[in-house]
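If your schedule permits, I should be very grateful for your opinion on a structural question. Thank you for your consideration; the sequence and its tokens are set out here:

===
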Amino acid sequence: MIATILEKIVSTHVQRPYHHGDLRRSLIQAGSKMIEEKGLAGLSLREVARAAGVSHTAPYRHFQDKADLLAAIAQLGFEQLTDQAGKAASLHEGDPCKQFVAASVQYILFGVRNPCMSHLLFGGVINMRTAPRALKRSSWAAFQLVETIIDNGKRAGVFLDRDTMELAVATWSGIHGLAQLISGGYLSRLAATERQVEALGKMVCQLLLTGILNPDEKKKRRSGFKGSRIPGFE
């Protein structure tokens, strides 16, 4: 299932060299870069056109307005997030626990490395109830990845036999909350470097994982679990 999700993303998100025949993608990529450099307030169709090396009227061939461009950039962001987390999970086929931690840490790293993009995706900038269908699909794919890993764990008998949606929402909320706390500077003492962010992420994700393990699996792991040390904060 993880491979299937990644295949769908790759089919719609293929990196191609710039040329004016692919103007829409070039504008989306230019806008994505501009958001991280200047923030959401610094984005405009005129500035994106300039960055892409086209006339200021060219973006209107593909986007009605700034909101339309933001939706397309958000779709790209969700695709990148799911791709990175999915690839991390795919390194641990057959081990849902390691898949859960690996994908979750990549989610956290994505949010910390791309704070403005993360704000666009999850900060209420776009109303997902009225978002374009393609954007809704890409956002749902990110959540499906979490569900897939949890389903794998339930089938393997290591995760609680509870509703998959309940477990996915509970764990995703914790992962997302940590990413936002780090990005907002609230955990600067614990997450001053990317190495610390990764270690903190692993520690929190392992604790979240413990919460969804079935009782027998939890008992087996309890004696051997030591958690992760956070470099520079022992």
Summary: Confidence is low (pLDDT under 50) at residues 13-19. The first helix runs from residue 2 to 12. DSSP finds ten helices and no strands in the chain.
